[in-house]
Structure formats: structure tokens, C-alpha cells
């Protein structure tokens, strides 16, 4: 896909993150240097399900789905949609939502009931709540969306994959619009222990991507949902465009179960593919929202990848990591970071990589330490921002966004 | 958990107390109320049957659940199965 095919625009965004409820909250608080990380984790502590959902809706949804529903409500409202007033034929609206672990809390609860009381005491709703497609199913039902709906599962690249596939669904003409994004609620005793056993979590409890002292990632939870629409159809209905979705690049490392390729070759290829998909060159890139996990391996490999993909342009481009402010939202990270990227582009500002103080040899990009700074102009052509997401298993996904164009 | 004496009223009380879990106010749980009226679907009824089993030791099969239409139906069936 490249220039000449169907344009895709973002018309609505919603987020529930450790920085609070709302996509603007995420953007504004991160810009201001606030952190949602407390005691070594990024819980979505402002989220109270009963403030947004009925008792029945809460009982019918794992926390992972609840987060997605609330982010979805915000996104669809911003797009000007409602269940009673969809702008498109419901059969032409899809839902693609990524997750790493789906309803893992429900699984753990069911396992406890099973262990303590036996198989006849497992909650009857366990399966529909825990399956990793529960969030897209719930969004589809909530809004009566009857186009293609499914979940993507590729660890920490899952929701970037979801958004990329949603873009494709519109480009090939299978849908007029797609509700997409990701959700994760895996701050559970078992997942915490399992990541810890893998030695992946920060022992200091600090998320400081690209800093010499970084020692692992900090788990977070949350959801982000975007509404993507066919550009011409969005224009015809007078929709307000938040950004243009221009590129989707994806590939695999074929290297290791958890470690990235140390040279960042896969990551670089995904960035290059995203630019090619957008019909763009590195000279257009004004911001990179890094995967930036704060693990020793990722941040080094990703730095190499950015240099390889953007050539001489890399040194001039601000690169920051949302994970410095909210931790790693795992399967929801790509979507939350896409939202952050779009709002950074809109305001022409690069939010800071919080906690980045001590440089490391070879990690010499502009990681936006300290505080937010203005984005540079594009060297040529329309400005683009890249949002990187990489997942265990070697899944690399890069999304490219362009700010909304001035209305003629 | 099992009440000393099981009557229609004790089971009715159990069902009424369970209703808020399904988003239904207990006051709507009249004997004649149908599950359809209360907006309880097969998933809710499966959960309700687990509560009944916990309290009365009566296990309702999926065939049983499919035949129930109202709170009264449920109470009568449970009563008939109590040894």
C-alpha cells in the first residue's frame, strides 16, 4: 500500500492509562512531566468501573474489557458516533483490538476457585470473560458494529498490529471505518511473578528508558482505542480529522523468544517499511515515539534501529518513550503510544523521556531529557511521526502518522 | 450455609438477594417475574444456579435451566429436588 490508495484518518481517540482517564489527560500530564508509576508499577488507579459501566456490564467483562469499553466510549464520542447514530452501515464497521494477556485476572480467579473448591465451583462466566477477543466482542456488541471483528495477539506489539490491520481493512475496502486499539489488565499476582522470574522487570521500580542505569521495564495497565475512517467518507460526513494514518510497517526478527536482534535489524526494517508504506522518506520524520522499554537490550537495539532506518536524520529527531511516564502497557502499549504520538504531532511538541539523566555510550540520540520540546520542521514534504512497538517473539510494528492538514 | 428449614420463602429470599449481582433490584424479584422481564439471560441463570447449589446442594442441569422461565419456576424446581 502507498500513495494513491485509500486514505485513512483518525477521527476519535480514547485512553485509560496510569496517568488518568482520557486521551488528553495522557498527553497533558505526560507533557507536564507527571508520572503514573507508583511503587514500581503503573496501575490505572483513577479507573473506577462503576463510574462508567452498569453492574451488569462490569460482571460481564474482565477488567481488560472494561478498560477497552471506557476508552472506546471516549473515542466514539469524539468521533461523533453513537450506537443510535452510526455514520456508516454497521456491517461496514470493524473492530480490531490487541492484547497481550486478555482476561488474565479472570483466569487466575477461576484457577483459585478450581483449586479450592473443585471443578463445579468455577464461575460460569470464566470463558467468555477471559478469552483474548472479549474486548473487541464487547465493543462490537456495545455499538452494534457488525463488520469484521477480532483480536490481535503479538505480546507488546499487539495493539500496534491491531491499528495497522485496521488501516489495511479500510484500504482494501473491507470496511468504511474500524474501531481499533488495545487493552491490558495484567497487574495480577501471577503475571507479576512470571515477569519477575524472567528477570524482565525493573528491580529499582523505575522506568527510565535510554538511561545508563535502566534495569528492566515497569508493568502498567490501561487501554486506548482509536476510530479510523476512510478519508473520503470521513470528509463527506464532515468529520473532524485528528491525524492521517499514513504508514504501517511490520516484520519479524526470527531471532529469539524474548531478546531483540542486538543490531535492531527487524526494528529498522519495520520503520523503513512504515515509511515506504507512507510513500515517505526519513527527511519527513519529525518525531519518534520509541518502544523504549527501559530494558538494557531494547533501548540499545532500538537506538541502532532508529539510526539505521533514518540515516543521518536520526540525530535531529526527538525520540521519547511514553513508558517513562506510564510504564509498559504490554498489549495496550502500541495503542496508548499511538494516541500520545498523534497528540504530540497535533501540538508540535515532543514529550520528555522522564528519568533520563545518565547517557550511555552509543545511546546518543535526542531522547528529550528533562522537559518537552518543540518538534523540528520536516526537512522536506509533510511531517510524519513514527510510533514503534516490538513484542516478545520478535514482532516488530511501526505506525506512521501525519498531523491533520489545514482545511482548504 | 444451608438453612435449618428449607421453605419456599427461604429459597425466594436467596434468589432475591442474588438479583443485585445481576444488576436487578431485589424489589423486582416477585414470584411471578420472568427472567425475560428481569433481563436475565442464560449466563445469569447459570450463575444463579451455582448460588442455589451452594446454598441448598441442589444441582440444576442445563436441561433444567433451559426449562425455567420465572422465579417461581425456579423455586418450585429447587423445592422438588430437596431430599
CATH superfamily heading of chain B: ACP-like
Reported for the largest beta sheet of chain A, the result is: 11 strands, mixed
The residue-averaged pLDDT of chain A reads 96
Estimate the mean pLDDT confidence of chain B. 91
**In CATH's first tier, which class of chain B applies?**
Mainly Alpha
**Helical/strand content category of chain B:** mainly alpha
CATH architecture level-2 label of chain B: Orthogonal Bundle
Largest sheet of chain B: none
Strand content of chain A: 15-25%
Count of helical regions of chain B: 4
Predict the CATH topology of the largest domain in chain A.
Peroxisomal Thiolase, Chain A, domain 1
Q: What fraction, in percent, of the residue positions of chain B are helical?
A: 40-55%
CATH T-level fold name of chain B:
Non-ribosomal Peptide Synthetase Peptidyl Carrier Protein, Chain A
The figure for the number of domains of chain A is 2
Give the number of DSSP strands of chain A. 13
Q: How much strand content do the residues of chain B show?
A: under 5%
Order of helices and strands of chain A: EEHHHEHHHEHEHEHEHEHEHHEEEE
CATH-defined architecture of the largest domain in chain A:
3-Layer(aba) Sandwich
Count up the helices of chain A. 13
What is shown here, in short?
The complex is a heterodimer of chains A (408) and B (83). Chain A is 33% helix and 19% strand.
Amino acid at each position: 500500500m502507498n500513495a494513491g490508495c485509500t486514505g485513512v484518518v483518525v477521527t476519535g481517540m480514547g485512553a485509560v492509562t496510569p496517568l488518568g482517564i482520557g486521551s488528553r489527560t495522557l498527553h497533558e500530564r505526560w507533557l507536564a512531566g507527571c508520572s503514573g508509576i507508583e511503587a514500581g508499577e503503573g496501575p490505572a488507579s483513577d479507573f473506577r468501573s462503576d463510574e462508567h459501566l452498569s453492574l451488569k456490564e462490569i460482571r460481564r467483562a474482565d477488567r481488560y474489557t472494561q478498560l477497552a469499553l471506557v476508552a472506546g466510549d471516549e473515542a466514539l464520542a469524539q468521533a461523533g458516533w453513537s450506537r443510535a447514530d452510526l455514520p456508516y452501515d454497521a456491517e461496514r464497521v470493524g473492530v480490531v483490538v490487541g492484547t497481550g494477556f486478555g482476561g488474565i485476572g479472570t483466569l487466575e480467579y477461576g484457577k483459585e476457585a478450581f483449586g479450592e473448591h473443585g471443578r463445579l465451583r468455577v464461575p460460569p462466566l470464566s470463558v467468555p470473560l477471559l478469552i483474548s477477543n472479549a474486548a473487541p466482542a464487547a465493543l462490537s456488541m456495545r455499538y452494534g458494529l457488525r463488520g469484521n471483528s477480532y483480536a490481535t495477539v503479538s505480546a507488546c506489539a499487539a495493539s500496534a498490529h491491531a491499528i495497522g490491520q485496521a488501516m489495511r481493512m479500510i484500504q482494501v475496502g473491507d470496511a468504511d471505518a474500524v474501531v481499533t486499539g488495545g487493552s491490558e489488565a495484567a497487574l495480577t499476582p501471577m503475571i507479576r511473578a512470571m515477569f519477575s522470574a524472567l528477570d524482565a522487570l525493573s528491580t529499582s521500580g523505575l522506568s527510565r528508558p535510554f538511561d545508563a542505569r535502566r534495569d528492566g521495564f515497569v508493568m502498567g495497565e490501561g487501554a486506548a482505542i482509536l476510530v479510523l475512517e476512510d478519508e473520503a467518507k470521513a470528509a463527506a460526513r464532515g468529520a473532524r480529522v485528528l491525524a492521517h494514518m499514513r504508514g504501517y510497517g511490520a516484520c519479524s526478527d526470527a531471532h529469539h523468544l524474548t531478546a531483540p536482534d542486538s543490531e535492531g535489524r527487524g526494528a529498522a526494517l519495520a520503520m523503513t517499511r512504515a515509511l515506504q508504506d507512507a510513500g515517505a522518506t526519513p527527511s519527513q520524520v519529525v518525531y519518534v515515539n520509541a518502544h523504549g522499554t527501559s530494558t538494557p537490550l531494547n533501548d540499545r537495539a532500538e537506538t541502532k534501529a532508529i539510526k539505521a532506518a533514518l540515516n543521518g536524520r536520526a540525530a535531529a529527531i526527538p525520540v521519547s518513550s511514553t513508558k517513562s511516564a506510564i510504564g509498559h502497557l504490554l498489549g495496550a502499549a502500541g495503542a496508548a503510544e499511538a494516541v500520545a504520538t498523534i497528540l504530540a504531532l497535533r501540538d508540535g511538541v515532543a514529550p520528555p523521556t522522564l528519568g533520563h539523566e545518565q547517557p550511555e555510550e552509543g545511546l546518543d540520540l535526542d531522547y528529550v531529557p528533562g522537559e518537552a520540546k518543540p518538534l523540528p520542521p520536516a526537512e522536506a514534504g509533510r511531517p510524519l511521526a513514527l510510533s514503534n512497538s516490538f513484542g516478545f517473539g520478535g514482532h516488530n510494528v511501526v505506525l506512521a502518522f501525519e498531523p491533520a492538514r489545514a482545511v482548504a | 450455609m444451608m438453612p435449618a428449614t428449607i421453605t419456599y420463602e427461604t429459597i425466594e429470599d436467596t434468589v432475591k438477594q442474588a438479583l443485585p449481582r445481576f444488576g436487578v433490584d431485589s424489589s423486582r424479584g416477585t414470584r411471578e417475574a420472568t427472567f425475560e422481564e428481569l433481563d436475565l439471560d442464560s449466563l445469569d441463570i447459570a450463575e444463579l444456579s451455582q448460588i442455589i447449589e451452594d446454598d441448598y446442594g441442589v444441582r440444576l442441569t442445563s436441561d433444567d435451566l433451559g426449562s425455567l422461565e420465572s422465579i417461581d419456576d425456579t423455586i418450585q424446581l429447587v423445592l422438588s429436588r430437596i431430599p
